[in-house]
Amino acid sequence: MIGEKAKKIVSKTGLFSFGHDTTLHVEDVKPARAYIHAYWGKLQRVNTKDEGSLIGLPNPYLVPASEEGHEFDFNEMYYWDSYFMVQGMLDEEHKDLVMGILDNLETMFLRFHTIPNASRTYLMGRSQPPMLTSFIFDIYNAYKLDKDWLRDRIEVAKQEYETVWMGTAKPHWRQVYQGLSRYYDINMLHDLAEAESGWDMTPRFNRRALDCLPADLNALLYKYEMDFAAAARIFNDKREIAKWELAAKTRAKTMNKLMWDKARGLYYDYNYAKKKRGNINSLAAYYPLWAGMVDRGQAAALVKSLRRFENKGGLATTDALPLAQYVPGALPTQWAHPNGWAPLHFIVVKGLQRYGYHKDAERIARKWIKTNLDWFNHHAVFLEKYNIVAPDKPPVRGVYPSQTGFGWTNAVFERFCQEFIDKQV
């Protein structure tokens, strides 16, 4: 049920049309941002001791969603959700919470030698997309922390990189082909490995995730390697700089050989079991742009390829697929056309900014803000995903019930408002 307070916020906005115009001002987004600011308290949890399957954590944390009476409930902290949620609160007000969430992730790694999918014992068999070094550097830069703080956290990230993501045998059998890694689950089930990708479910892997080297995962690991080099530069350790830059260069070379399609201007997942590049056009292709892995020619090609995904309401997760290319079987694919997701918009926009495509970044960010805002103005909630082809229609449901709330949507909306709306003042 929509709360009375939220209904009042909606009634004051006066914006009730799903349109093409993305011209927005500070006053237009003010009620939605006030709602988000108040909502963080609703998503906060404190659980310092193990309780059943719920893992105790030393600091308060955020859950992805919280809606009273909803059929799907959260009390656990998720790995990659946490990274995107803090993007909306890298400020002094939320400093203790943000730093505590990072500490929780590292505490779980030091205790279990992995960062699980979420803080549940039954989710220990898989992780989620590795965001630890990005989390560390975002906090280091936002709060201007000292070298000792950075050194300690980078050492934990190096252990995660080596143990979990570069493992060559159970329980972390992820590095499988030419130095590249796959998503994995200890049960060796394709669908559970796909769940580790965060894209549960998607047509990308054709229900064979264990056979695939994902473009996004290996770009994330390239980012780790370059972040380790950046830390070594801060510590003035020339040997470490050379080591990690070589690792990153080697990974990029292999990824370009196996995954880059020059004719189509996109990266594709590589099925190493079949020795064949995938054929699903997806926003996973833009992780290398975000990670700084591509050259200028590739960046230009990726920008040109945005037309495959860009719609009225933002970016679709994949392009419109022929019916035969959808995942076989009964599982719905919510990580696909026509749905758009906040973390993927964040990745693409940041990648575009990194390579100087600021107009493209702003256009996409404003479309996404407008889609989010229009839904809020109609329904007084934010969603975990949106139908960006027809923004006034509900998104396609996934294998679990559609969520409202919603942590990473709220955070990316706030972050984009800070960057693209506030700057107009």
Can you characterise this structure?
The chain has 425 residues and is mostly helical. 46% of the residues lie in helices and 7% in strands. The protein has helices spanning 4-13, 26-43, 79-86, 95-112, 132-143, 147-165, 190-196, 215-234, 238-259, 287-291, 296-304, 342-354, 358-379, 407-420, and strands at residues 44-45, 61-62, 175-177, 180-181, 212-213, 260-261, 266-267, 270-271, 276-277, 310-311, 314-315, 339-341, 385-387. Strands 5-8-9 form a three-stranded antiparallel beta sheet. A hairpin with a 2-residue loop joins strand 10 and strand 11. It starts with a helix and ends in a 5-residue tail after the last helix. 48% of the residues are buried. The model is unreliable at 1-19 (pLDDT under 50).
Write the layout of secondary structure elements.
Blueprint: H1 4-13, H2 26-43, E1 44-45, E2 61-62, H3 79-86, H4 95-112, H5 132-143, H6 147-165, E3 175-177, E4 180-181, H7 190-196, E5 212-213, H8 215-234, H9 238-259, E6 260-261, E7 266-267, E8 270-271, E9 276-277, H10 287-291, H11 296-304, E10 310-311, E11 314-315, E12 339-341, H12 342-354, H13 358-379, E13 385-387, H14 407-420
Antiparallel strand pairs: 1-2, 3-4, 5-8, 6-7, 8-9, 10-11, 12-13
Helix pairs in contact: 1-2, 1-13, 2-14, 3-4, 3-14, 4-5, 5-6, 5-8, 6-8, 8-9, 12-13, 12-14, 13-14
